[in-house]
Amino acid sequence: MPDLSAFPITKRWPARHPELLQLYSLPTPNGVKVSIMLEEIGLPYEVHLVDFGKDDQKTPEFLSLNPNGKIPAILDPNGPGGRPLPLFESGAILQYLAEKTGKLLPEDAARRYQAIQWVHFQMGGIGPMFGQVGFFHKFAGKDFEDKRPLDRYVGESKRLLGVMETHLSGRQWFMDDDYTIADISMLGWVRNLIGFYGAGDLVEFSQFKSVGAWLERGLARPAVQRGLNIPKRP
């Protein structure tokens, strides 16, 4: 039985099944990337809710695992060399899990890096820009009199959707017929943009037909549907 007692996070979130991968998360667009991935690859795991309403992400225990104070994070008792591996940053976790299991990344080296480049596209563009649209359209930023920040982020989000649209035209997934971590990285963000953020009309989402069809295909996957609600909110 793996001993995880050296990791302070297990003091606040005890592992009932320490032999399983431990997921610390919340069902946000970044959080669901890892829960969807785990559901898709069928790797057994134990989930722990990091409640932002209680500032769980700011506690010393959580910061010991992720000093950046963001979800998701994992603790894999069966990491490289058979040693426990703590890991944060959703893109890094997606790549780690794909390489650990040999799933959802192309075997061909060139195509492998092409899939990873789209994950970085999401991390550096889609996530930050869509998140800013959410802030300035739905949350506290909506009350700002100066609408230039909102206009900037809406414009950049439309540009990014255009990049996605051009690439997805005639393709089922970002890597043609291969569903990969590239798709998983973006599904929750596009869903949030037009759903929870209510910004579909703002970014003129209806004009991005290929993106809309891709999103519909992705959300129809049973593993995606399960992963979108893990962990359950209180």
UniProtKB/TrEMBL annotation:
Residues 108-234 form the GST C-terminal domain. The keyword RNA-binding does not apply. It is an enzyme of class 1 (oxidoreductase). Its EC number is 1.8.4.-. Keywords: Oxidoreductase. PROSITE patterns: GST_CTER (PS50405), GST_NTER (PS50404). InterPro entries: Glutathione-S-Trfase_C-like, Glutathione-S-Trfase_C_sf, Glutathione_S-Trfase, Glutathione_S-Trfase_N, GST_C, Thioredoxin-like_sf. CDD domains: GST_C_Ure2p_like, GST_N_Ure2p_like. It comes from the Bacteria. It holds the Pfam family GST_C. GO terms for molecular function: oxidoreductase activity. Residues 18-105 form the GST N-terminal domain. Belongs to the GST superfamily. PANTHER family: DISULFIDE-BOND OXIDOREDUCTASE YFCG, GLUTATHIONE S-TRANSFERASE-RELATED. This is GST-like protein. It comes from Bradyrhizobium japonicum.
